[in-house]
User: Fold this.
Amino acid sequence: MLSPSATTIRIFLHVLFASVWVGGQFALAGIVPAVRRASPGTTKVIAQAFGRVAWPAFGLTVLTGMWSLMAVDISAASSEYQGTVLFHIAMAIASGVFAAVHTNGKSKAALAVGGALGALTALAALFLGVLLRSA
Ligand code: HEM
Assistant:
């Protein structure tokens, strides 16, 4: 069997927290319509409970991402790799900003745009992360 290294742990933790942040949003989106039908008043409580799991996971994704930035010699990497890292980080930050707009927005537009763009940018960050690894 292959032996794990510090890189294995670093990537494992980054992907673990990222999967809670990204996958959790899609799981919640699938559950909410059923919750709304069964018990309309409960949706807010479920969303708040999800936030208590998702935001720490987002923070830990950022922290482990910074760990990766220190571990990988970005300055020696190709300009394509550097551009992809920048795009990856920009999408990750955008996913946090749009999720915050979705959570705190008062209008229906803020809710819809924040939710849609939050999910889209989170998916983009995930895809670009995997693209980095396959470089
Ligand atoms: C929505 C947030 C994020 C998601 C979904 C995400 C996802 C991923 C994934 C799936 C990988 C590939 C892991 C693998 O090798 O199999 C990755 C790699 C990476 N991520 Fe993220 N990430 C996010 C945020 C961040 C942030 C905020 C940073 C920097 C501050 C960052 C920096 C990196 C770096 C440098 C790598 C390459 C690591 C390496 O190849 O050793 N990520 N990310």
The chain has four helices and no strands.
